[in-house]
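Troubleshooting entry. The earlier prediction with 6-O-phosphono-beta-D-fructofuranose gave an output that would not parse, so I re-checked the input for stray whitespace and re-submitted. Clean input:
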Amino acid sequence: MRLGVLTSGGDCAGLNSVVRAVVRRADGYGFEVLGIHKATHGFLVRPVDAVKLTPAHVSGLVGRGGTVLETTNKGDPFAYPDGHGGTVDRSDVIGAGYHELGLDALVGIGGDGSLAILHRLATQSDWNLVGIPKTIDNDVGHTETSIGFASAVEVATEALDRLDITAASHGRVMVLEVMGRDAGHIALNAGIAGGAHVILIPEIDYDIDKVAAHLTRRHEAGLNHSLVVVAEAVKDPEGDHHLQTLAQGERRYGGVGQQVAEAIARRTDFETRVTVLGHVQRGGSPVANDRVLGSAFGVAAVDLCAQGRFGRMVAWQNRRVVDLPLEEAINSYQAVELDDALVTTARGLGITFGDR
Ligand code: F6P
């Protein structure tokens, strides 16, 4: 067999662990692997922008952050920028690129958006596709965790550990804004692990007065500092989302932490400071969990190819890798549920979500 492998969407730690595992497992079967550069953009050019990958090429990659294949979270093939402010459908060219390479199957590593695009391309252009979920946001359905999530949580937790120390020195309230787009998984997990006192996530509406009252009670009880974690997609105290328009016109979340901090300062008089963690949550070496998950997913994806079981996504459930129809996974966005075990844990620890 000749397999293609690509990484698509925002990068995260652990992607290279997957690529390495795909190449090593494929080598065990005697399969050839071609790495496609820059997600589906590699299929747009002629000759297709791909490179042959052997175990020697991926040696030492298990712990390296980023993606050696490069990636993009722009340029939907079905609405590709035409260079004049409009869009054009380039999906046929991309679909044909797979066949020009003579691929028997493609292993696509992506989040919910990328996997949906790859699935559409596969259906339209007759590709054999196996998907592997990656996203620091951890919002892909039917898998308990995705590549990159554990590493992002680790970074946010370390940030809280550091903020706790400086907060204690000055008796301050520290607000940490974390990524996660529309899901609060990073905020929830890091908030618990990093000893936060308030966690604000988009899934739970908060009342800023309740947040301020909670902090005041802590400080009145003799605790001189507090940590507040704010997920980027939380609405500000006035009920608005905070979106920034980037140079290329794209819109991304960012800035709500500042609004929350100012609102707390106004209500409490506590010295308040803000840290926006941003892309450091995506860079750096993957933690051991992501290396293990990446290895397990990569091996399982190639096994699916060898068995001719396509249109599937590998997933992590109950301590093992399973697989399910890609369509099911991309149709089931996974935000934090109100009865999530970790929401219960946080409440049990006395952490407030500002909702009571
Ligand atoms: O989906 C991953 C993610 O890091 C989100 O958490 C964040 O909102 C977004 O991507 C940032 O996108 P970009 O890399 O385009 O700034």
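This one parsed fine. The chain has two domains: 2-147+286-317, 151-282+338-348.
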